Amino acid sequence: MTTKSEAQSDVKKIKNAVSEELVEKSKEDVGEIKKNENEEPKLTDLPGIGPAVSAKLENAGVYDMMSLAVMTPAILSDAAGVSEAVARKAIQASRNLLNLGFVDGTEYAKKRESVNYITTGSKNFDTLLGGKGVESRAITEAFGAFGSGKTQVGLTLAVNVQLPIDKGGSNGKCVFIDTEGTFRPSRVKQIAETLGTNPEKVLKNIFVARAFNSDHQILLLDKVSEMIRGGEPIKLLIIDSLTAHFRAEFSGRGQLADRQQKLNRYIHNLMKIAETHNLAVYVTNQVMANPAQLFGDPTTAIGGHIVAHASTYRIYLRRGKQGSRVAKLIDSPNLPDNETIYYVTEAGVVDEA
Ligand code: GTP
Ligand code: MG
């Protein structure tokens, strides 16, 4: 028979064991990232939208409430095979559910408070971006010549997003859409290892997809929405490179308008995903020689004004002196144009070599 004090000491032992386990868990930092509990409303929650209609909409590429909310009744009626009256009702309901429209200042401030940041790994680089790194609900575009570090910044972010918030991460997973076959698992593991995190776990939390052409690249975005709806806590979306396929496929002068239109729609969708799911989007972009520029660095980002205007933060990357790298923030609406020095080492992006 156990005495009361023995029983109490057993309870104590169990408590200690549990708390030790918790400490061990927190040491791992990047472990099992839990799926989202508070799922967003589904299309079938709307009046007039049953499973059959919802399936039709999915076939038409409409997966989430936001995509539906921005449709017109005529287009929705066409895509879903419902009457315009039903379509109008569903759109109205989705807008109510999403609370589209104006919000007051305090609500706006609250929304801003929910913004997450992901450290680049370099304090200097983070400072350039306003202090904490790459921001959710925003598109950060890195452009620069080949070998300037665009992909390396992306790979480092893919690791860092998984860190807890107090370590500069967003406690989330990453989607890496790779258009050029430059994703390197071994490099990710190396960066994760130098950070002291578990490389296998880090790699498991990055969903990689190779996009074989621009249409495929576009389709993959729907897949991302689908994964998030399924509860994957994706907090960073990387497109490396945003423009390469578009540039290769629409090469003639006469195709420029078509390319820009397609690219415009794509970026718009990226912004929508960033906004709806409060995640950060990091895209890379090549440069082309700009014969019109006579002085300074004669390079211009691909995609012209369309990419430039959609990106919240644009950074120009180039090699600096003695193995350093230079990042320059360009045309930010709320931050001064500025440049800073960082390095790419075994640990990924860092302040000092
Ligand atoms: P493109 O995709 O070709 O346009 O170039 P990019 O801007 O994506 O260049 P990327 O990020 O691939 O940078 C390549 C450079 O990063 C290399 O030239 C190296 O200097 C550096 N780098 C890549 N891997 C490592 C590594 O494991 N260790 C170190 N120290 N540097 C690395
Ligand atoms: Mg690259």
What is this structure, in a nutshell?
The protein has helices at 4-28, 51-59, 65-69, 73-80, 84-98, 105-113, 123-128, 150-160, 185-194, 199-204, 214-229, 244-249, 256-277, 304-310; strands at 117-118, 134-135, 138-144, 173-178, 206-210, 234-240, 280-285, 287-289, 299-301, 313-319, 325-330, 338-345, 348-350.
CATH superfamily of the largest domain: P-loop containing nucleotide triphosphate hydrolases
How many runs of DSSP E, i.e. beta strands?
13
Q: What does the average pLDDT come to?
A: 85
Bound small molecules, which ones?
guanosine-5'-triphosphate, magnesium ion
What is the terminal-to-terminal distance?
A: 65 Å
Task: Enter the CATH topology name of the largest domain.
Answer: Rossmann fold
CATH class categorisation of the largest domain: Alpha Beta
Radius of gyration: 23 Å
Named at the architecture level, the CATH assignment of the largest domain is: 3-Layer(aba) Sandwich
Which residues form runs of ≥5 with pLDDT under 50? 18-27
Instruction: Give the overall shape.
Output: globular
Could you give the order of the helices and strands?
HHHHHHEHEEHEHHEHEHHEEEHEEEE
Q: How many domains would you count in the coordinates? A: 2
Helical proportion? 40-55%
Which sequence of strands runs across the widest sheet?
5-4-6-7-3-10-11-12-13
Q: Which strand-content bin applies to the residues?
A: 15-25%
Number of helices, where a helix is a run of at least 4 consecutive DSSP H or I residues: 14
Q: Would you tell me the structural class of the helices and strands?
A: alpha/beta
Sheet bearing the most strands, described?
A: 9 strands, mixed
